[in-house]
Amino acid sequence: MAPILGIWASAQTAAATVGDYESIATFTTTGSAQGVTFSSIPQTYTHLQLRCFVRDQASAPNPDYLLAQINGVTTAQYSNHSLYGNGSSVTSDAFNISAYGFCGPLAYVSGAYSSANVYSPVIIDILDYTNTNKFKTLRGLGGFDSNGSGTVGLFSGSWRSTSAITSIYISTANNLEVAGSVYALYGIKG
After folding, report:
1. Can you give the pTM of this predicted structure?
2. Does the residue 62 lie in any domain?
């Protein structure tokens, strides 16, 4: 067994039961990546979960963040809420970022401005992704420590469509993940 983002994975082959997580696909960057697309997502799960371990090349003093694009939609169908803190203050936001054609931020991630080799662990849940009777909700939890400073936050995004989710593009806002960043997609049984 090996730990994957704090969760133990096992090679057991037991049949899936309600609440089980099944690996769909994993991508590890080997150079400067420009996002990852998970396409042809199986429609056999109740929910999806993205587990990310990301570092960006951003050099700005503010943290970079993860964005998602659903089914290639770049029109006015996304909105976001966020609550995040840095150890001395807490901030909340609610805004429609549809002008950018992405859902997010879904988590803040470390970059060149933070301590060397610090990657951000991020979990993003995508709820009821096949349900064609409701809009889709994404919720993210993530952040980073930078040797006494950093940011952690809870984020939610909405894709205002009743279509089933068949593909997800995820990237940092700068589109420059460093080598060793990991994006793993899991399906969650009912």
Report:
1. 0.85
2. yes
